[in-house]
Structures are given as structure tokens and as C-alpha cells.
Amino acid sequence: MHRLKTRPQFQAALAGGTVSRTAHFALHRLPLVARVDTPEAIAETAGPAPDEAQALFALDGVWIGAMVPKRWARRAVTRNTIKRQIYAVSSRFAERLPSAAHVVRLRATFDRKQFISATSEQLKLAVRQELEQLFERGVAR
Asked: Are 114 and 72 in contact (CB under 8 A)?
């Protein structure tokens, strides 16, 4: 599994469309076309340039990125905790995900009255459970 690093990679994956949603997260996916290095495939691809979005991803396989905006998670500690959870859960689903660029986006805030601590075990458990739901739905599509 590869991680998205550049802004154009994130933008391309977000433009791919939403695959699944939960109360706090959305999963976006841009399917990647498999590359074939046989002489026949090279001859077929000669001519017009490939899709720009495809050119951003040098390696085939599963790509994952996490977007946790400050708008929805004010504390840096909380943002980092949520990102760690995203990457941990996505690594467990890596074999079941299709070859594509995926972005998990936080789209709503977790209630600070319910989760007082920025890195509480309650918050981690709630995030993990919701991410597992998100990926289960995303794998099914």
C-alpha cells in the first residue's frame, strides 16, 4: 500500500467520486488502470497521452490518503490520532481494496462533550469502529 503525498494526488482521488459514507467519514476512490509492459500493450498506448490523473500514480496498487481538516478536529493531537487510525484500519483492508487511489475524509466533528480528551480510548474506539464500517462498505462496491 502506498500513501498519497501531493496535493494533485489528493485532488485526483477526490474527483474520482465518493464510494461510501458514515456519520463522520467519507471514502473517495479513483480507479487506476493497470499497466502492462508487453510490446503489444506499448504499441496500443502509443499516441495520445494517458489520463493526467493516472500519471500521478507511478506504481499500481492501493494508494491511501487521509484528510482531517482543522475545521472538524481543532486539536493537532486529535487530527494526528484520527490519521493514525485511518492508516491502521486501511492497512487491514489493503488486500481487499481494489487497485485505486483512496482518500478518507473527515466530514463532521466528534462531539467534544462526549470525547473530552483529545486522545481518549473512547475516541479511538469510536473512530476505529466507524472506519471499519466505512471500509466494509467501500470494499463491497
From this structure: no
The size of the chain, in residues, is: 141
The CATH number linked to 135 is 3.30.230.10
Distance CA 138, CA 20 (A): 5
Select from 123, 97, 102 the least CA-distant residue to 13.
Answer: 102
The 10s digit of each residue's pLDDT in 68-104 is 999 999 999 999 999 999 999 999 999 999 989 999 9
Q: Is residue 118 part of a domain?
A: yes
What is the pTM assigned to this prediction?
Answer: 0.81
Beta-sheet strands, E only, within the chain = 2-3, 18-21, 25-31, 63-67, 100-106
